[in-house]
Structures are given as structure tokens and as C-alpha cells.
Amino acid sequence: MPAECETATGLYDKLFSFFGGVASYAVTQSATTVHSGDSMQLDIAFQPTPFFGVSGVGIGTLGVSAPELAASPSADTWSMTIDAPTDASLSVFVTIREDDNNDGIINIDLGDDEWESPLLMLSPGTNVYNIPVASFVDTGFGSGNGLQNFTTVNRLAFFLTIESRTSYPGGLVTTPKTLWIDHVGLYAGSQSLPSTCDGDVNADAVVDVNDISFVIFRLGDPCGATGCDADANSDGAIDVNDISFVLFRLGQPC
To answer: How many CA atoms lie within 13 A of 123 on its CB side?
Structure first.
């Protein structure tokens, strides 16, 4: 965590489908590049359902502990990059659960909090979705401590819920659809698609002092926790070498 999908063991698990509108679904590793490198392919076999106006699936994990749980201490944003279908209206929201009582078991009825993000409509094609952690609301029945301990708790669970509804444009999806997902998790600052221009770490299509500031703000952050957007020279660390890398390319056209 974050999920960069470079190995099959880094993929989210199948957790649930609901209301009969899904015949089956699968999560596999894909060579399709959505953010960078490999991605997580989600195949959902939507089908007609005569009784309900909503259907969907949940993928994620029921618990991750250190060292795999490696959120940056300054993480303030949940980000995910999703390549969504162009012919279907789908939404997503994120659920995070904390082991507040530190018993090694996440149970929102017995001492642990659950937090839920606002619902977002997915745009067609590849897009980055940044959700401030401050916008997550406590939906855990007051069982935990009521505090967002995302960067300090020893164990977290988190999952994405992908939904189709009759009220969405185009109505309920009733045919199979595929999504690709990457770069999912808690990050320090909003994320963006990697630039194709060396030195343009903030992906604004120019190499300038803003890129230097971008690197300085993330100096020393664990590369796996930030997604390495600021790792300009791609050596797996965010350090003074990245500042030099950007300085050497100042003013370079993109």
C-alpha cells in the first residue's frame, strides 16, 4: 500500500458483488499502462437485474499491516488512476477501516472506525482522482475513536466500490465492462499522470522552478509511499540528485 500493481501480490482482492446485477467479476494484473508500469484489470460481467436499480462490486483488502502498510506521515490525499469505459456511467467511492484498538483485527462494531469518501462519477478514459482525506466521513457507528489515524495506525483495511445505477446517464449497465486501475492509496499531495518530459515532475508541461519546489517538498519521503512522482531521475529515492536533475533541464521544452 499504495497499490502500484507491479506484482500480482500487490493487487486488490475480490470482496463482494451485490443485488444480482453482476454475474461474475475478476481482478488480474495487466501490462496495460494506466499510470505507470502494470495496472490492475477489473472485469465486471454486469447483467440485467429485474429487482434493483443498483449493482456493483467491491475490491480491496480486509487488512494490511506494516511494513506493507507504508503511508507517508504527511499523506493527506487518497488518489487513484482509473481507465473507465467510454460507453457506461459508473461511480466509485472509497472505504477505509482502522484498527483503532490495536488488537490486530479490524471490526467496525467492536472498537474500530470506518471512513467513507464522497461518491465520484468516473469520467471516460484515463483520469486521476484525488480525494482529500479530510472529506472522508465516519460511517463506523461511533465504534472507534472518531479520529483519522490513517498514517499512524498499525493496520488498515480499504476497498473501492464500483457501482452502476438506473439513475445514472444511460441507465443501469447490463453488459460486461473492463476498467484498469493503478497508483491507488494514500499520498502526500494530489497526484497526476507521469510526465513524458524529463524534469517535469509536476506534469505542467514545462521544466521550471515549480518542479524544483515539487521535489523539495517531498525530499526524503519514502518512494513507495509517494508513488515517486518527485523521483526525477528514477533511482528509487527522492533526494538532492533529483533537484540537480531538474536544474540541469530548466527551460527545456516539453
So the answer is: 6
Start-to-end CA distance of the chain, whole Å, equals 32
Q: What is the pLDDT of residues 164-195, one digit of tens each?
A: 999 999 999 999 999 999 999 999 888 988 77
What is the rounded distance in angstroms from the CA atom of residue 1 to the CA atom of residue 186?
Answer: 8
Q: Which residue range forms the structural domain that includes residue 72?
A: 8-187
User: Is residue 229 within 8 Å of residue 192, measured between CB atoms?
Assistant: yes
Dump pLDDT digits (tens) for 59-82: 999 999 978 887 888 899 999 999
Together in a domain, 183 and 235: no
Which of 183, 197, 210 lies closest to 128 in space, CA to CA? 183
Q: Is there a single domain that holds both residue 103 and residue 137? A: yes
Q: What is the CATH number of the domain that holds 73?
A: 2.60.120.260
Our count of domains for the chain comes to: 2
- Cα separation, 161 vs 56, in Å, equals 7
> What's the CA gap between 212 and 253, in Å, rounded?
16
Q: CATH code at 221?
A: 1.10.1330.10
Buried b (16+ CB within 10 A) or exposed e, 93-102: bbbbbbbbbe
